[in-house]
Amino acid sequence: MALCGLDSCNSGMVKLQIIKTIGMTVLGICVASCTLTYHVPRDQVQTQPQSQTNTNTSSQTRKPPASNQAGPKVPVYRVVRGDTLYSIAWRYRLDYKQLAWWNQINAPYLINVGQLIRLQPQRGQSVSPPTVVVQAPPSRPVAATPRPQTTTRPVAQPTAPPKPAIVKPDVPSIETPTKVEVKTLSWRWPVRGQLLDTFGTNPGIDIAGKFGQAVLASEAGKVVYSGSGLKGYGDLIIIKHDDKFLSAYAHNSRLMVKEGDQVFSGQTIAQLGKVADISLLHFEIRIDGTPVDPQQYLPRR
To answer: What is the end-to-end Cα distance of the chain in Å, rounded?
Structure first.
């Protein structure tokens, strides 16, 4: 009986030891499994890989170098009601002939509302229009004087062998540039009054007068602008005197001529207006679009 009890006891301890061993084995497997599936904390994951990701992204979204980008656009002006090619050229201190050349506009330089006017030449286009040349007309042959008829029969002469004809080579005609007729302009003061401001920082001169006083055309010419569309000039008149000279009369109270009118020197074209509380006329002369001192052309008082 005692031996049986001891055996059963030992058997129970062996079973307990086996169960314990099995439990420890299972626990080790679980620990190993947990160790294999362990994740790095989120804050550690974002530290180094995040900087690399941002670096790659910034390099992909970087703008192309300036050399690959398109060049600056040529400035243009959109025509509004009341504009003329001359007024646009006057606004930007350009020669109306250049403006017409850049935009392929022929005389009489008509433009339309909404039309885009280039203020610079196109790429590869010359700044100024080419010189116009004409071919010299061929010279007319001089008519031979007819010989008087005679009733006497000419005496027969021995026939001589004909001389070989001398053929002269054709000389090509030479194109010569056209000669622009330059007329002498005789300028006159547009109003009588005190000189308030001279040429310099001012693109013209300011002449004092009385409100409503007659404003005279300084020289004969054609009115190419009559309106109030140019900022800073008020009611303005521009007269074209020839291919080079234009004159302007600004800050009028009344315009008495319209575009297209031919005016003579000394003709009343407007009535004097005001700038603030001062009655004055702003007067300019431009050559090929460039302002010049009017006192160099006006007669001395």
So the answer is: 159
Q: Dihedrals φ, ψ of 214, to 5°?
A: -70, 135
Which residue reads 């109030």 in tokens? 228
Structural domain includes residue 135: no
205 DSSP β-pair partners: 283
CATH number at residue 103: 3.10.350.10
Position 168 in a domain = no
- If one counts the domains in the chain, the total is 2
Q: What is the pLDDT of residues 102-146, one digit of tens each?
A: 999 998 999 999 999 999 998 877 777 765 443 434 444 444 555
Q: Are 239 and 84 in contact (CB under 8 A)?
A: no
Q: Identify the residue whose tokens are 């080419």.
A: 130
CATH number of the structural domain spanning residue 241: 2.70.70.10
- Which residues, 6 or more positions from 4, have their beta carbon under 8 angstroms from its beta carbon? none
d(CA 173, CA 136): 7
* Structural contact between residues 219 and 188, judged by C-beta atoms closer than 8 angstroms: yes
- Mark which of 121, 148, 177 sits at the end of a domain: 121
* Domain presence at residue 266: yes
107 in any annotated domain: yes
Closest by CA to 79, choosing from 88, 91, 66, 89, is 88
What φ, ψ does residue 269 adopt, rounded to 5°?
-115, -15
Indicate the pLDDT class of residue 147, thresholds 50, 70 and 90.
low
Enclosing domain of residue 96: 76-121
Domain stop point among 121, 146, 180: 121
* CA 51 and chain centroid, separation: 47
Question: pLDDT tens, 60-106?
Answer: 545 544 444 555 566 899 999 999 999 999 999 999 999 999 999 99
| Calpha distance 70→104 (Å, rounded) | 25
